[in-house]
Amino acid sequence: MRLDKNTYGTVLLVYLFSAIALALLWFFVSNLWIAIPVTLLILWVCWWQTAFHMVPDRIPNGSSTLVTAVADGKIMHMRRAYEREFLVKECQVVSIYMDFWDVHANFWPVTGTVSYANYNPGEHFLAFKPKASEENEHTCTCIRTPEGKDVFFKQLAGGFARRIVCYAKEGLQVKAGEQCGIIKFGSRIDIFLPLDARVLVSEGQVVRACETVIAEL
Fold it and tell me: In terms of pTM, does the model score above 0.90?
């Protein structure tokens, strides 16, 4: 595992504020029954934020025909929806919700070429709300496989997320299971699949990025 390169500053700030808090705590609080539990809590926050921004080592199961989860989390919704930004057609949509305890590094779901990449500023509604898909800050990426299939996905900011990182650029050759970015704090991924794709997951299922096969094209 390694720390995501876009989160060095965030983690450093967490450590800095934690160090200041610990110094003030032990300078002003002499009661060990208070100081020790608070110290442990602050150290736990440091550990949690470090783990949160780590890029895990995974064994990729995706390919140009097998679509894997973009992120760790739980399948929140499965539905049909009309994708109007780029594909302009009806698709099967699989939504993955990431909570505070999930690793938030994101990974390419399929092997192919990036045919579309766009950033959309927006609101910060709670990520599990239906309107978040259209109104929240998000990035959109479409990958065209060598077989000519399109896999489109959105990285959606949530109520607390304030930064989405996406490495997508049009024309970029990508491989399933390699890192494509990161979203900081609670957020969501919407994956738009062709109507003839065979979806292999169900609502409520916990998935792991790179490893859980979402669908077969």
Answer: no
Question: Are 139 and 154 within 8 A, CB to CB?
Answer: yes
- The residues carrying an active-site annotation are 187
152-170 confidence digits (pLDDT tens): 999 988 655 557 889 999 9
